[in-house]
Design goal:
By secondary structure, the chain is an alpha+beta fold. It is built from 4 helices and 8 strands; from the N terminus they run βααβββαβαβββ. Strands 1, 2, 3, 4, 5, 6, 7 and 8 form an 8-stranded mixed beta sheet that branches.
């Protein structure tokens, strides 16, 4: 089995590879502006999986992180795609874990995503990582399929000396290049 190298998104030169993987493996169509929305604002939350000795990615994750309703620092997994020939090797779980670790460094309170209600493999992956089904979203996708919104609550740091209210110690680091955007028109109303 070939070694897989995981690296962060490095710029526009990665975009054709990301688009190809997502368009081939996911049912939802995205225009180039959707990719750029995520990749330009949160480049540190996109990772690629590449077999050693190759330059062609076989897996990608694209995420964002922003304040949700001025209360929760929410991470969002927008796209996760692994080439069918490379599945069942831990690529997807490694990509998800890497993204969540970066989000944790920036004080994330929860991570959410949507996946098709009948995507058994995706549901099993995310549930094995601790995500729980929050709600069913009827006719969520353009193809008419329902989705499940999954959420992963991130507990406060265990090394805190004094207990703090859930969100009080998690403030955005304003001096970092990490972009925090408050989404007034977030995908959901809950």
């Amino acid at each position: 089995m070939a070694e897989i190298v995981y690296r962060p998104y490095i710029g526009e030169s990665d975009l054709p590879h990301i688009m190809s993987l997502v368009q081939t493996e996911l049912s939802e169509p995205y225009v180039i502006y959707t990719y750029r929305y995520f990749l330009h604002q949160w480049p540190q939350l996109a990772f690629l999986a590449i077999p050693a000795g190759s330059s062609v990615p076989i897996g990608v994750i694209v995420c964002k992180q922003s304040m949700h309703k001025h209360v929760a620092n929410r991470g969002y997994i927008a796209m996760l795609s692994v080439n069918k020939n490379w599945r069942k090797r831990g690529v997807a779980s490694t990509l998800v874990r890497r993204s969540i670790e970066v989000m944790k460094q920036h004080g994330v309170d929860e991570v959410v995503l949507e996946t098709e209600y009948d995507n058994v493999a995706a549901l099993a992956l995310y549930e094995s990582l601790g995500f729980i089904r929050e709600k069913r979203l009827y006719r969520f996708y353009l193809n008419g399929k329902d989705a499940f919104r999954l959420v992963l609550p991130i507990p406060p740091d265990e090394d805190q000396d004094t207990p703090l209210p859930y969100h009080s110690h998690r403030q955005p680091i304003r001096t970092s290049p990490f972009a925090y955007v408050v989404d007034e028109d977030d995908e959901d109303d809950d």
